[in-house]
Amino acid sequence: MKIFIIFIAVLCLSLISLVASASTLTSLVTNSQGEQLVADAYRRTLYVFDADLNQTVPACNGDCAEVWPPYLLTDQDAASLSGPLGKIIRMNGRQQLTYEGRPVYTYAYDRSVGDDLGNAVGGVWHSIVVGDIGK
Known about the structure:
The chain is an alpha+beta fold. The chain is 21% helix and 22% strand. It has three helices and eight strands, in the order αβββαβαββββ. The strands form three sheets. Strands 4, 5, 6 and 7 form a four-stranded antiparallel beta sheet that branches. It has a two-stranded antiparallel sheet with strand order 1-2. A two-stranded antiparallel sheet has the order 3-8. The two termini are 30 Å apart.
């Protein structure tokens, strides 16, 4: 039993380090269902948008970006990306963080650490659940 607990602890730490050590640009938060979510450095939940799948520029612009602010990067941030983190260039030339190749956003109506009020909005916005990474 002790070995099993140690194994589970190591497995959890490995998943956490996959996200947390990838960059100081991301962190992990826990939502009200107990799921660990990928968040920004300020611990705001990050989301992906189905309309961005297989696109060369992010699909959320204008009014959409007012409600779903893109996670923008400085040149210094962009130079330090590794692992599942990358960047995409927006129509305005700004760099946006990607997670496993998908642009990421925050949600204007999330107010507290762990809020994921944007999850499943319109059936096209999704928080990034740590257990679902790579799916």
